[in-house]
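This part of the workshop introduces the protein records we will be handling. Getting from the letters to the tokens is the skill we practise here. An example says more than a description, so a record of this kind follows:
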Amino acid sequence: MSSGHVTSDGRVGNESATEILAWEPAGEPKLSAAFGRCATMAAMATWKLLTLAYKARRGWSRIPPAQRRKILENAGKQARKHGPTIAKHVATAVSEARKRRA
């Protein structure tokens, strides 16, 4: 350890943050760094999805009901017209991604 003032819990005051974070109490199982990173990323993705849903709901509620009906009618027409093409492109992209992973 480097020299410096000693804190009340016995650590030297100018230790690097990585040394302090790397400390683990004896006898506890050590989780891999990848596990923590994945858990954090999953939590962030969940919050982003919730935020997006909240903003979409808030925006949708600000549209007048008559206009909402028109949007939904047109969305159905668009889905029937373009849905099969989009589904085909998605299926192609998924199969290519599977080939790259294999």
